[in-house]
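Our collaborator T.R. sent over the components below with a one-line note: 'Predict the complex.' Nothing else. No constraints on interfaces, no templates requested, no preferences about which chain binds where. So this is a plain run: every listed entity goes in together, and whatever single assembly comes back becomes the starting point for the next discussion.
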Amino acid sequence: MICGPTAAGKTYAAVWFARLAALSVVSADSRQIYRGFDIGTAKPTHREQLAVPHFGIDVLDPTERASAAWWAGHADAWIDQIVASGRTPVVVGGTGLYLRALFGTLFEEPAMHAGDRAAIQASLADHSTEELRRWVSVLDPDRAHLGRTQLLRAIEIALLTGHRVSDLHREHARPPRRRARYLVVDPGPDLAIQIASRSSFMLTNGWLDEVRTLMREIPEDAPAWNASGYRTIREMVRGNISAAQAEERIVIETRQYAKRQRTWFRHQLAGEDVTRANPHQPNWEEQAMAWWNEGARTE
RNA sequence: GGCGCCGUGGCCAAGUGGUAAGGCGGCAGACUGCAAAUCUGCUAUUCGUCGGUUCGAUUCCGACCGGCGCCU
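Returned assembly:
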């Protein structure tokens, strides 16, 4: 498992390891799953995908909604497939929740009628987050401090199953599907510089054209649009903001996202088998090799 | 040179004679089926500088410095 914040060079790291063994990459990235959203999501290039087989990229239509459990189910199958082909699976990515769904304890969701779910979500859509929070503080107080997404989930579960999500988490936790050793790749303070240059590169290498095309083909409210930068580019294409404003905005969005990833990997991975390495440090190769060799002994 | 307007934290910006709203950014955190999402906390002992009036000034007065505009 290789993870780290955006623009940290995870793909680079994966390709680096590929020279050590025949491996295949499973992308744990909630945005690279969408077809057509290529440049802004920094999908591995064709060259990279030829060098190392990739799974989990371009597997969903932009209008389809993914979920951590959905992804974990597929990832589980991809890993079986990779192992059967005699290669070593390396999960690479930045979507913390997906990693948890695969390597951690996602709970066993009770059966819920899809129509009922949709009806509840629709009826909840107009209520303010504050209001939802008040409801959850009664229905499931342990979850009331979380964000809107989590509040909606808590209400949905409570209404449809009569249980608190927090209880289900405890009582219906299912064992992890897989075990992993983590290599957290993080260039430290240099990350901000990398984010700036990566944003600039994307903007001058077809991102705008990609968005123009997507705007013609993909509904405005499709889940795939929910990727940092894309809405901003859309505003730029519409002429609401200047190119300079867009670029500044994108750099900030990306930095903020990378910061959230760092927080996640710092705290949510606590207790796991984690090695941290900086690809810019001179001892990067030693650290990487040590991580790799340790795996060879234990697996 | 004269007249007018303005000068509040990294940026934008409210404000009042009684002791500094808000937004952005930044930092820290949360996170179990929308996660590149969603949400929480913290972030100016101080209002261009120096004086004056006042019990008390960021708020009133004066000078100076800086910016903008107009006039000559």
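Summary for T.R.: Chain A has a mean pLDDT of 93.
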